[in-house]
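Field reference: sequence -> structure
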Amino acid sequence: MLIAHLRQPASPDPEEAPLQEPAPAAAVDAKDVLVAAERFTWALAAPGERHWPDGEFLDVALSTVRTEEREGYIERLEVFVEQHRARLEELLRDWGQGSRPASHRRYALVGQPETLVILERMETNPFSLRSQWKTELETVFLDDLEFAWGPRIRHSR
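Structure field:
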């Protein structure tokens, strides 16, 4: 055994061994996510009544997508939207553009493509979403959306 051990090549010195950087986690491209969300026209307000030009709501929601969730996120979003189709249609009908609550200019996020991501995050990672939202945005939009969506647990109150 001693002879076999001596015949093995020496291990490279850790200082001489090339450092291999871990591959960076794939980023979730907001434009691609928005394009995917816009495919669900039955969950969205009419095109002239939607989109936040600066994308701040979408950016905050996407910032809560964990590294391990990034690969295949668009496919998971699509599954989420299909699984909640009836609930999303009801949300748009009851709280979206033209509804009585919307006439008070509340619930402005209902019917926006970004909202599909926000709702998915609300269901998947609600505490991170709320925490990130509070540091970057006023919570009134999230509070209203949370109320209209009716999650099982109220995270803000």
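Note: The two ends are 68 Å apart (CA to CA).
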